[in-house]
Design the sequence.
């Protein structure tokens, strides 16, 4: 290195906004798990800035950890077809209307059977599966009924 930024000219990083400063070092993952409903406010400090870390609930503000209700978060994510029937991994579903598929010119025809579906974690509105002609489909459950 023939040129380095001298310490004395580095811009000062004084945070004037307490909320912004907190967000900057907030250890919450960026995958959206913090938006999960059903996580109560922190019993220690009472702030709602909480997230689930596996089976544990963690407070981002004071670092308090307490056991979470696993069943509670699992119950939220029931994947249902257009008729409200619960879909499970391995089920077969039928496409109820013609659908365009991103990334291919092959349309997915009404009546196409998708066998051996997979559920999308944390996303009850979509399933994954393969049709006879198209692999790796991600489909909205509102266009499907249980086969
Ligand atoms: Zn707390």
Sequence:
């Amino acid at each position: 290195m023939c040129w380095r930024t001298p310490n004395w000219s580095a811009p000062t990083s004084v945070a004037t906004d307490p909320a912004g400063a907190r967000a900057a070092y907030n250890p919450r993952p960026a995958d959206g798990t913090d938006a999960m409903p059903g996580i109560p406010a922190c019993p220690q400090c009472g702030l709602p800035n909480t997230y689930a870390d596996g089976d544990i609930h963690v407070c981002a503000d004071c670092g308090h950890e307490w056991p979470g209700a696993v069943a509670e978060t699992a119950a939220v994510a029931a994947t249902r077809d257009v008729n409200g029937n619960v879909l499970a991994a391995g089920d077969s579903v039928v496409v109820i209307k013609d659908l365009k598929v991103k990334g291919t010119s092959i349309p997915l025809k009404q009546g196409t059977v998708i066998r051996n579906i997979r559920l999308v974690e944390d996303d009850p509105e979509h399933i994954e599966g393969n049709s006879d002609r198209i692999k790796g489909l991600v489909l909205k459950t509102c266009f499907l009924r249980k086969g």
Remarks:
- Confidence is low (pLDDT under 50) at residues 20-24.
- The longest strand covers residues 113-119.
- Strands lie at 50-53, 56-59, 65-67, 93-95, 113-119, 126-130, 137-140, 144-146.
- The radius of gyration is 23 Å.
